[in-house]
Amino acid sequence: EVAWSHHGSLSRELRATVEQRLKAGLLPAIVATSSLELGIDIGALDQVLLVQSPRSLASAAQRIGRAGHQVGETSRGTFYPTHPRDFLDCAVAARAVLDAEIEPIAPVRNPLDLLAQTLLGLVARERWRLDDLFAFVRTAAPFHELPRPHFDLVVEMLAGRYAEARLPELRPRVAVDRLDGTVEGRAGLASLLARAGGTIPDRGYFQLRVDDSNAKLGELDEEFVWERAIGDSFVLGAQAWRIQRITAHEVFVVPARGGASLAPFWRADARDRGSFFSERVAGLLEAADARLEQPEFALELASRHALEPAAVAELIQGLAAVRAALGGRLPHRHHLVFEECEERAGDPSRRQVILYTFWGGRVNRPLALALAAAWEEREGTPIEVLADDDALLLVLPEGADPKALLAALEPRRVEDLLRRRLEASGFFGALFRQNAQRALLLPRAGPARRTPLWWSRQNAKKLLEAVRGFEDFPLLLETWRSCLQDEFELDVLGRRLGELAAGEVRVSHVTTSRPSPLAANLMWRRANELMYEDDVPESGRPSALRGDLIREVALGAERPEIPAELVERFRRKAQRLLPGYPPTTPLELLEWVKERLLLTSSEWRELLSAIDRERAGLAAELLAAIADKLAIAPRGVVAR
After folding, report:
1. CA quadruple 284, 290, 294, 296: dihedral positive or negative?
2. Low-confidence residues of the chain: pLDDT under 70
3. What are 220's strand-pairing partners?
4. Is the backbone of residue 197 left (phi > 0), alpha (psi -120 to 50) or beta?
């Protein structure tokens, strides 16, 4: 055994075994995700090998720091890029680790989703005065500056203020006594916290179990399971497993003989790179643009960025290919490039425009949303837009001027444009779903049953649509806060747009027959979306087809008439008047009365003729009471 794996989807028992064997020196190596970044004592490691560059400089330093994790020891790590673009990020990450540079930390302030779960936990077993509860919550650092109105909004949400939307997710979880200013949990709150509490969003994983012993091996992604069939084999940990059966919540496997080439995958939400890392990537591109052919530049890459000769050659060759594809200049910190190429989806009237910024996803994503909103405001039609850490992809009509669109984007208007576009994006919807889960409005089904991710998404969409009409729904407010503060860097975007307006950043335009290698990630994402797209028309507007033609074609044929006797028989069944259908117990009779919004004398007489008085038994008093009300009611009508 050379290596075992360690990741969050393995069962806790398996992870503990792997950690113990590694610490005891019984494993020469371990293949791990960030699950080994959580302060676990795993003993002495000689070296960390990083396959591809991490998403942040802090992760690079943390992972390499796993080696030589003793006083006086030196941490050693090696980056292994897997594609040409990755050499650039690995070179920047290596230099940053050597310089002890990591991204600045911005603690989360006043998260209302976590406040909701915290309040539920506090009031589940005891009654609190609201003033005391507010003061107690503010002793925690994340809520030290919590405004009282925001606290009150969350309490009112948990008390059922928004239940008028008629969704079970908005039913009251706590009871508030307005007279003495106290709050306490309703029945069932403690069990809800026990089965659904936590802050990690639920992705509806299947439990993976051994068929004969029912021992848990770990968890499998919902999408991976849907693509499998009975008899398929895959590798998990250091063992190959064959699927025996699949239920709604679990996958049962047995050990498979021989090797299996298939490995599970686990989908995760996209993580955008920040401007701190991205600015260093753009800075290296700026240096390469000016000195790519100079032998001294290759020597500097080897010495300053700790690159081996083969890595230096790969990086220079990749950058040279990009520069040739973009007209002889590289995009960098002070040079943006618009690349326009033919639309590959088969529409000659549209063009793909790729804007290379290297500003990072936390800047590019709000920029893409703002540009899309600005275009729709000016032209009245939506456009397709994608963004990643390096660039934006816009699909524009033939002849559109993307440079003018960017130049017209004023920093002071970004927030207003985001207001028009952000809430309609999948990014906002995903964050709202996660916030609703953390606030326990979309709780898990429990430890023994999984909640499918598609089910959570559908319920989150219904909840979002239901609360759009409220001007102060706290989870909408929290989703906006998490977007604008935690996920976007709007201050950096404002500075970059200001530099553009001041002429400090040059913008160039190039037309190509195919996108440059830098756009490979964006092009793959767009092809993936088009491949799985349905047949919903783009505009969503009705056609101009004449209504008389539709009626002539679709509604002109004779329709069979339903016999009147059949209609009358159905009516008597629905109104429980046909023999065999009338109420037979007092409870059934009471429910029948509740069902009727209006009760007339004729309907009452019809029921009396159909009901068996003797079988009705204790219903006599109810029958008499209703008969009395009908006798004195105006026009012989009683309303429930």
Report:
1. negative
2. 37-41, 259-260, 343-348, 447-448, 532-542, 550-551, 553-559, 585-587, 590-591, 593-597, 599, 604-605, 607-640
3. 206
4. beta
Nearest residue to 392 via CA among 354, 418, 335, 422 = 354
Quote the CA–CA distance of 592 and 598 in Å, as a whole number: 11
pLDDT of residue 347: 66
Per-residue pLDDT, 126: 93
DSSP class of residue 273? P
Contacts of 394 (CB under 8 A, 6+ apart): 352, 353, 354, 355, 368, 371, 372, 383, 384, 385, 402
Cα dihedral: 64, 68, 69, 70 (round 10): -160
Q: How far apart are CA 11 and CA 250, in angstroms?
A: 14
Smallest Cα–Cα separation from 251: which of 292, 220, 284, 288?
Answer: 220
The CA distance from 342 to 385, in Å, is 15
How far lies 85's CA from each of 153, 301, 311, 316, 519, in Å?
Answer: 47, 15, 12, 11, 10
Q: How far apart are CA 277 and CA 151, in angstroms?
A: 36
What is the rounded radius of gyration, in angstroms, for the C-alpha atoms of the chain?
A: 32
**Tokens standing for 280?**
């260093």
Q: Is 436 in contact with 465 (CB distance < 8 Å)?
A: no
C-beta neighbour count of 563 within 10 angstroms: 9
In terms of Cα–Cα distance, which of 540, 529, 537 is closest to 345?
A: 529
Cβ atoms of 510 and 518 closer than 8 Å: no
- The dihedral built from the CA positions of residue 107, 112, 115 and 117, taken in this order, carries a sign that is negative
| Terminal-to-terminal C-alpha distance of the chain | 75
Condensed to tens digits (0 to 9), the pLDDT of residues 33-80 reads 877 765 566 777 889 999 999 989 999 998 898 888 888 889 999 999
**446 and 195 in contact (C-beta within 8 Å)?**
yes
**Which pLDDT belongs to residue 618?**
44
108 phi and psi, to 5 degrees? -75, 135
Alpha-helical runs (H) found in 505-555: 520-531, 547-554
The pLDDT of residue 16 is: 86
**By three-state DSSP, how is residue 350 classified?**
strand
pTM of the entire predicted model: 0.79
Which residue spans within 411-535 are E strands per DSSP? 506-511
Convert the pLDDT of each residue in 119-158 to its tens digit.
999 999 999 999 999 999 999 999 999 999 999 999 999 9
DSSP H or E segment with residue 270? none
Strand pairing category for 335-342 and 250-255: unpaired
> How far is 15 from 30, CA to CA, in rounded Å?
11
